[in-house]
Design goal:
The protein is mainly α and about 500 residues long. It has helices spanning about 1-10, 10-30, 35-45, 50-75, 85-95, 100-135, 140-150, 160-175, 195, 200-225, 240-260, 265-280, 295-320, 325-335, 345-350, 350-375, 375-380, 385-405, 410-425, 430-455, 465-495, and strands spanning about 180, 185.
Length: about 500
């Protein structure tokens, strides 16, 4: 069987399809608004006439490439190409402003690769066991997972925790617009306006807060006397950075894998959780804290979001349950090939399953080769005059916002968010917490209410399982971990003296 797996995977045609998939995924991921889900959905029809292994591996190449590609525009332009790169933009862009774009892109590429490989190893070795754990998640566990994610707001707010919390609450409030997912009652719909009933998508808001606000700042620089020029000093990570990558990326990749296994949790959550892990592990050796341009703020999120790629495949292949929106489309791709995801797939089409495992590893390898060889080309973006670059960013913002739902309402939402983001940056208010609130707010609210409905209002349901207690412990560590670390270090010093 091993020979058959290598024979099917290592043919020139399959490798070519994967190269096309990864290259297309990187381009799609780097363009604001064009998510990995959209890329896989758009290119799904191309796989209709292919063999099952060829079609699935090409889609996997798009998936891996798009999750990584979002970091390119996040670092160079402060414009997350995908929601999974929102956390990377916080420190990555500040590194680019200091002339360390090559260093940031190198760290992003290698961390993405390590996170992806860790997820593939988990997919290969322990997929059935991990999928069983994920199926034990109920509303209470999902609520605590969302709360754990929201606890990260303090860490992504830099030194402005109070402002960050206000911005995060604003994001949660905006997420409440639309039809209540539990009762079906319209909220903040302004006379049941159709656009508001559908809810406000967080992608146009993310594009506005990060990209359009940056475009407004670029206009200000164009007309100011001082024009910022960012020189690219280095291309690859330093030895010290490699040590940080090898320490942080495998851990965040493993955490991202577990997040990917949980149905409904995606790469965006994996990215922010990875950022939170970096907060606890960073040493500030180069004099910059997380949020000020620390390389760990690139390593953690990129390891986490790429770890989700393999994790999301685990419940899809073993149980037929998609881990995220991309794997939901993958189920459709397998069905079109006459294959049914689930336990029988491992029995009836075992060779195909292990071909997918090997193909994911090859796709990640192609991604790291393309990423590292393209760093010099990517960093050329910084040398483009802002007079030319700013209109391009404007156009990409409008296209990306409109492309999500083919609705001009999203374009208006993006423009309003851009104006708000511009003024927030002037008063030093971090905008990342708003995106986190938009993503996790609905998840927390819905699962909190559903859990209480199931338990007839008994709050003990949030303490009823070992998984609940696991997340409670993580929440406490996230909130009080720094204080606990300081207390333990003081006690240790006293004992030494």
């Amino acid at each position: 069987m091993l020979q058959q797996i290598f024979t099917e995977t290592l043919t020139w045609k399959v490798i070519l399809y994967m190269i096309i998939g990864v290259a297309g995924g990187i381009c799609i991921g780097a363009l604001p608004g064009l998510t990995a889900t959209m890329g896989v959905a758009l290119l799904l029809p191309l796989t209709f006439g292919m063999d099952a292994s060829q079609g699935i591996l090409m889609l996997l190449g798009i998936y891996c490439g798009a999750i990584y590609g979002g970091s390119i525009s996040a670092i160079l332009l402060h414009t997350p190409g995908t929601p999974a790169s929102a956390a990377t933009a916080i420190d990555g862009y500040k590194l680019a402003q200091r002339g360390e774009a090559g260093r940031a892109l190198g760290a992003s590429t290698l961390s993405s690769y390590i996170g992806g490989v860790v997820s593939v190893i988990c997919l290969w070795l322990i997929s059935p066991q991990l999928a069983k754990i994920a199926l034990k998640f109920s509303s209470a566990e999902f609520f605590l997972l969302a709360v754990f994610g929201l606890c990260i707001i303090g860490n992504i707010s830099g030194g402005n925790i109070e402002k960050g919390l206000i911005c995060g609450c604003f994001g949660v409030l905006v997420a409440c617009v639309g039809i209540d997912s539990v009762t079906g009652y319209p909220r903040f719909s302004f006379g049941k306006n159709v656009n508001f009933l559908a809810g406000i998508s967080y992608i146009p808001i993310m594009i506005g807060l990060f990209a359009m606000s940056q475009a407004f700042e670029n206009i200000e620089e164009i007309f100011s006397e001082e024009k910022a020029q960012y020189e690219v000093k280095s291309i690859l990570p330093k030895k010290e950075d490699m040590k940080r990558i090898l320490k942080i990326a495998p851990l965040t990749g493993l955490i991202g894998t577990f997040i990917g296994i949980v149905p409904g949790a995606g790469a965006d959550i994996g990215s922010f959780v990875g950022y939170n892990v970096s907060q606890n592990l960073t040493k500030n050796d180069d004099g910059y804290k997380l949020g000020e341009g620390n390389i760990d703020g690139v390593i953690g999120p990129e390891g986490g979001n790429n770890g989700v790629t393999g994790g999301a495949m685990i419940p899809m292949l073993t149980l037929g349950v998609p881990g995220d929106a991309v794997t939901a489309i993958m189920i459709g791709a397998l069905t079109l090939q006459g294959l049914a995801p689930g336990p029988m797939l491992f029995i009836q089409h075992k060779t195909l399953v292990y071909t997918i495992f090997l193909g994911m590893f090859i796709a990640n390898t192609i991604m790291v080769v393309m990423g590292l060889s393209g760093i010099r080309l990517f960093t050329k973006v910084l040398s483009i005059p802002k007079v030319i670059l700013t209109p391009i960013i404007f156009a990409l913002c409008v296209i990306g916002s409109y492309a999500m739902r083919n609705n001009f309402f999203d374009v208006y939402t993006m423009l309003i968010a851009g104006v708000i983001g511009y003024f927030l940056s002037k008063i030093k208010v971090p905008t990342s917490p708003a995106i986190l609130g938009l993503i996790l707010g609905p998840m927390a609210e819905k699962n909190f209410r559903v859990a209480l409905l199931k338990s007839k209002g008994n709050p003990a349901t949030f303490f009823s399982t070992g998984i609940c207690w696991f997340f409670i412990a993580l929440i406490l560590i996230s909130l009080f971990g720094t204080q606990l670390k300081k207390l333990l270090s003081k006690l240790f010093k006293k004992k030494k003296s």
